[in-house]
Amino acid sequence: MFDNYITTRTYQNWKFWIFGMIIRPLFDSYNNSAPLSNKEEFVASVQAWIKQHCSLIALRSVVLNCMRRLSTKTSVMTNPDQLPQELVQAALEACTLVDDDEKS
Asked: What is the distance between the alpha carbons of residues 8 and 5, in angstroms, rounded to a whole number?
């Protein structure tokens, strides 16, 4: 479902693919940590998750990893004008440009 949403939005705006690369590890970690047993436990776990995963230091690491993958798996460094076409093509091929261990 997440991948389909990212792909659909990428067709509308190629920059959304980059957003998807950044948000993917956060989405996965949230899905793995948010219990739904009761409201109080859910709220407490969401607050703890935010403190752990949405700090400037944590977000900086996520963005840097995303930019590293983008620069090694596309031609953005040698031919930046082709990036929009490459990302739309990746969406067409359902290629997420994420490492296999980050997919769920």
From this structure: 5
What whole-number distance in Å separates Cα of residue 2 and Cα of residue 68? 22
Rg (CA), the chain: 16
What angle in degrees, to the nearest 10, is found between the helix axes of 39-53 and 15-33?
Answer: 130
Check whether 103 has a pLDDT greater than 50. no
- Measured in whole angstroms, how far is the alpha carbon of residue 84 from the centre of its chain? 17
pTM of the model: 0.73
Q: How far is the C-alpha of 2 from the C-alpha of 5, rounded, in Å? A: 5
DSSP symbols for 8-44:
HHHHH-THHHHHHHHHHHHHHHHHHH---S-HHHHHH
The HSE-up count of residue 7 (CA atoms within 13 Å, CB side) is 13
Contact 2, 27 (CB under 8 A): yes
pLDDT in tens, 40-67: 888 888 898 999 999 999 999 999 999 9
